[in-house]
Amino acid sequence: MTAEAKTPSFSPPRAMLLAGWLFASVFFLYAFVLRVSPSVMVDDLMREFAVGGAILGNLSAVYFYVYASIQIPIGVAIDRLGARRLATGAAAICTVGVMVFAGADSLWVAYFGRFLIGLGCACSFVAALSVAAIWFPGRFALLGGLAQMLGVLGGVLGQAPFGYAVEQFGWRDTNWAVAVGGAVLTICLFLTVRDRPQDSAEPSRPLLEGLKRALSNNQTWLAAAFGVGMTGAMLAFGGLWGVPFFIEARGLVKPEAAALASVMFFGWGVGAPLFGWLSDKFGKRRPFMVSGGLLATAGISLTILFPTMPLPLLQAVLVMQGFGSSSMVLSFAVAREHNPPWANSATLGIINSFVVGSGAVLQPAIGYLLDLDWDGRMVDGARVYSVETFGFALQVLPWCCLAGVAAACFIREVRDR
Q: Would you call 284 helix, strand, or coil by DSSP?
């Protein structure tokens, strides 16, 4: 069954619709900055709140806990209420969360700030995909890939540039500046995002019918497993532990390590729209998912095993890893195609719940494994982990990628696309 929806008979100006999709995607960029920014504040936060790797992993992962846990309710709500109100309100909540985090005077206030950030950011990607599904259904995979590209740009900005700002102005002032950007974005979302007109909407259905339909479809679960496998390494390594790993393995300073870790996001930024365009063009999903998954597995494995390889080669490997992982964008297309149009946002929420949930699980899990094998070394009040300890803790990531590849092998192609 194909899930291509018809464009509503009455449409606002195309420029307005594109602007709405663009600002919803910029919201995802903003969310990605906040998602990965703890990686360049690891030592600052350890000193500020006197915590170790496991607790810091949980502080970073609070974002993922709340983000992942409410994806399904958000999907159902967008199907019923529309993206405009939810995206605008979510951006406002996110901005407040950044302010709370920037002003935190205790660990628990910092936790609450990250909770609000995750709560607000949770709407970002699903809103962008929902706008694309309603107004540009024939270009869904391409626009989903472009939204991922903007998100990855946020991942790049949240690494080296954010790390430089933290070095120059401190982590608190940097977050206050980010909060100002969130306020501006909230206004832009309110002015540009448009919902489907009520007179062209699908017939009213029970609130949870779309959710039940998507959850009962085994292709939804396979798509989610693939998304988890591809995203886990990016969120756990690129989003938190890659920077301290490169500092220890290569003797880099924080901005240099952040710049190196961000290279994988360049690969993701190129790959996401390319995978979306190619799969739309050839009408196939599975071959691109399997090939992308194998590239991601090889990339993260080589990075962990040979972190001191020549810098140009390591950069190429990181680009390969990010490029392969970006094929996760096809998990949204696959799930959408195997479920009816009236369950669009609920389906996308399910996939995004699992995708982001991979970070919620893997970030603190790796922190726990690091603490388990820690040799007791500290520098300026922050724990320092050896290369061997990192190798022990990070070995879970290639296995996650391989599990995603296995799931992709059972994806069923949709003939009528």
A: coil
